[in-house]
Amino acid sequence: MYLHYPTLFTLLRLSFSRKYFSPRHATLVLLFLVPFLLLRLFVWSMRLLDHVFFPGFRNQPLRAPLYIIGNPRSGTTFSHRLLALDDRFAWFKLYHTIFPAITCYRLFEWSAGIDRLLGSPGRRLLNMISNRGFRGWSTIHKTGPEKAESDEMLFMYAMLSPLLGLLFPFFDEMEAAVFVDRMPRRERNRLMAYYRSCLQRHLYATGPDKILLQKVALIAGRLDTIHSLLPDMRIVHLVRHPYESIPSLISMFEVTWKSLAPRARKDNRACRELAHLICDYYLHLHELEKGFPPDRLLKVRYEDLVADPRATVHRIYQALGMEVEPEFDARLIEETGRARKYKSRHRYSLEQYGLSREDIHRRLHPIFEEYGFRD
After folding, report:
1. Cα angle at 362 between 360 and 363, to 5 degrees?
2. SS3 at position 260
3. Distance between CA atoms of residues 91 and 93, nearest Å
4. pTM
5. C-alpha separations of 238 from 3, 38, 268, 298 in Å
6. What's the pLDDT band for 318 if we cut at 50, 70, 90?
7. How is 266-310 classified by DSSP, letter by letter?
8. Residue 147 pLDDT grade (very low, low, confident, very high; cuts 50, 70, 90)
9. Is 64 in a helix, a strand, or coil?
10. Which one of 11, 158, 227, 317 is at 20 to 30 Å from 264 when CA atoms are compared?
11. pLDDT, position 261
12. What is the pLDDT of residues 158-200, one digit of tens each?
């Protein structure tokens, strides 16, 4: 398993530096780091066993995977979970990304079978823990062990994910973690060898003949690197107005900062750094997509997805040259019907995080021009 030691050491140095140090945060960093490294060691050992019990995964092809991407809070999760209703796709559940080893998959399946025979006490306990653990995000991003989810945890294990900012809110000082595409090629190749093995394991274990379906909202800083690994990847890019997506993402991070890194909210420094990072992501995607073949890239506006999810999915399938089968369409109708009843209680604005529309518009002028976003 790949680990980017420079990022790990940088985050530790910053956490204990005079500039950012607080006893509470330092304690939480240590409480995080020990279990994290132990978990990583466990997963590494299970992945070694994969080579003994499931060596065939190394020959698993990755043919034309479909990636649902976009800047965070742009409808990627919703569209991903709609497409995951189609049995032709293989996709990650949250627990798959935490335990990316076929040996773990099989152990959990075996344990789940025993649990069902006992009346499912383990599942009830797991649901209770999950509900409490993700309670702060319940009105923002519903997730859980069995939910279709991004593969971001795979990059968390490598210490190369912007999600590290939940505990280490130092976005301006962790460039490798937020922009893998700017790392030396040798390191990127090592990271992609690890990532490829994760995808191969997952597809081998969950559906060797299926299409790999991915949703990654924080992919912008590593899209070029992943595209070099998967040159035939197909992309559905969800696009949302920056005035909406940026404060929505900050509000997610703020939920965690309140308990894990309270100083991050002081003078809105971390909010500004995160906002500027997302602006860089908008621009990076804008430039990269100029080189993508038109038949492998479809852009979908967030407002179109919200207005008519089923029609949007049909449009995606038409662009992919796939037929919407009756069974899938029936599930789609049922799920989109439930979605229409959902009313978000999540409220946010740029101003509440010390940000201005003028600054965002200035930074993202090419994006406003391309999509006709109103200032």
Report:
1. 65
2. helix
3. 7
4. 0.91
5. 30, 36, 28, 9
6. very high
7. GGGHHHHHHHHHHHHHHHHHHHHGGGS-GGGEEEEEHHHHHH-HH
8. confident
9. coil
10. 158
11. 83
12. 999 999 999 999 999 999 999 999 999 999 999 999 999 999 9
Within 8 A by CB and 6+ apart from 341, the residues are: none
CATH number of the domain bearing residue 90: 3.40.50.300
Which strands sit side by side in the sheet containing 66-69, from one edge to the other?
89-91, 211-216, 66-69, 234-239, 297-301
Helix H or strand E encompassing 58: none
Evaluate whether 56 touches 204 at the Cβ level (below 8 Å): yes
Tokens of 110: 């075996």
d(CA 181, CA 284): 10
H or E, element range at 68: strand 66-69
Lookup: tokens for 101:
């080893």
Count of the separate structural domains present in the chain: 1
Q: Which of 65, 371, 74, 368 is nearest to 217 (CA)?
A: 74
CB 270 within 8 A of CB 169: yes
User: In terms of residue numbers, what domain contains 40?
Assistant: 5-371
| SS3 labels along 326-366 | HHHHHHHHHHHHHHHCCCCCCCCCCHHHCCCHHHHHHHCHH
**Nearest in space to 277 (alpha carbons), one of 173, 158, 197:** 173
Of 286, 75, 37, 276, give the one whose Cα is nearest residue 178.
276
Helix (H, G, I), strand (E, B) or coil at 211: strand
